[in-house]
Amino acid sequence: MNRQELIQQVKGKKNYLCIGLDTDINKLPKHLHASEQAVFEFNKAIIDATKDFCVSYKINTAFYEAMGIKGWEALEQTVDYIPATHFKIADAKRGDIGNTSAQYAKTFFEVYNFDAVTVAPYMGEDSVRPFLEYENKWTIVLGLTSNKGSEDFQQLVVRTESEEFLSELTPGHHHKQQYLYEKVMQQMAGWGTPENLMFVVGATKAEQLQQIRKAYPEHFFLVPGVGSQGGSLAEVSRAALHADGGLLVNVSRAIIYAGTGERFAEDAKTIAEQYHDEMNSLFEEASLAS
Ligand SMILES: O=c1ccn([C@@H]2O[C@H](COP(=O)(O)O)[C@@H](O)[C@H]2O)c(=O)[nH]1
């Protein structure tokens, strides 16, 4: 899916919800336990119930890889089942030396038909390039993540310079320090474009998100951390939503595990619809403001 098609989906539905299929075999409702294809059946029911209330699904590969071959089968069945209208993200957080990254890119873009894959940029340019080479596919690079550990490396000060010098380097930044995540995003923005590159910015970092949006007005951001991690949809949206959307806000556990019984899919639908309604209002607000 290209940028224009993604924007059309978001604007058409006034919705930027990405539902995370972090499907844990140990958390499935009891009545599915006997099924050979329990994970796919769970995902299928969630997708059927929620597809009108979101524009994207994110499959976190960890939950599938942990099941071995059966997990990969469930992943393939799920990605094939997601409607073509929805943006499909493999949250795999890959990145390695060039020839290995090329195999990761082939896995998620050719073997499995994902639109996007998350990439950890720590190994630098040659580790990211193979993903960026695919037309109409997206590389979603970790920028400032939602977890506490983002303080360990991402928020280290890498440079202290004069205000003028830094605002030239990173337009929109007017503070004297540059953090590692800013440096990474600045460099990454030069390797890709808003047509093929997104950044992950955690919903728990709404304050920094405002600065990041100023620096990158065109890029889409994938924003996880609303729901179970306590991030606020309203704060995130007011910090970074614009008339073309520019955001995909991910919610995983708070939607897919909204219910635990036989009506789990209906319960998920209820919560997804609540996010959809809130996004509709926030979208109106952002459109009026721009
Ligand atoms: O900074 C990050 C990057 C990725 N994630 C992933 O997003 C979902 C969040 O799940 P919730 O259940 O909605 O908390 C999950 O797959 C994480 O691995 C993130 O949380 N933060």
TrEMBL record:
This protein's UniProt keywords: Decarboxylase, Lyase, Pyrimidine biosynthesis
Pfam families attached to this UniProt entry: OMPdecase
Known catalytic reactions: orotidine 5'-phosphate + H(+) = UMP + CO2
InterPro entries from the UniProt entry: Aldolase_TIM, OMPdecase_type-2, OMPdeCOase_dom, RibuloseP-bd_barrel
GO biological process: 'de novo' pyrimidine nucleobase biosynthetic process; 'de novo' UMP biosynthetic process
Segments forming domain Orotidine 5'-phosphate decarboxylase: 16-268
Pathway as given in its UniProt record: Pyrimidine metabolism; UMP biosynthesis via de novo pathway; UMP from orotate: step 2/2
Any one GO molecular function term: orotidine-5'-phosphate decarboxylase activity
Coiled-coil region(s): none
Tree of life domain: Bacteria
EC number: 4.1.1.23
Family: Belongs to the OMP decarboxylase family. Type 2 subfamily.
NCBIfam families membership: pyrF_sub2
Protein name: Orotidine-5'-phosphate decarboxylase
Gene that produces this protein: pyrF
